[in-house]
Amino acid sequence: LPSIKRAAIIDAAFAGCETVKKFVKMKSALEKKDWQQAGNGLQASI
To 10 degrees, the CA torsion angle through 29, 33, 34, 38? Predict the structure, then answer.
């Protein structure tokens, strides 16, 4: 995971650790290295 993207995920996790576990689509996109879709999933969740 590129460092800037990793930092964004870490920030989101610290902001709401239990909530991040529910971001199934974002997690799936991260596993596929689909950064754009992961970002879209995170943005849609906030």
Answer: 50
Token digits for 8?
């964004």
The conformation of residue 35, written as its DSSP 8-state character, comes to H
Question: Would you state the structure tokens that stand for residue 32, as one six-digit string?
Answer: 């596929």
- Sole residue written with tokens 């290295």: 33
CA atoms within 13 A on the CB side of 35: 9
Q: Which pLDDT belongs to residue 23?
A: 82
pLDDT digits (tens, 9 = 90+) for 1-46: 678 877 877 777 777 667 777 788 888 888 898 988 988 887 777 6
Alpha-carbon radius of gyration of the chain: 9
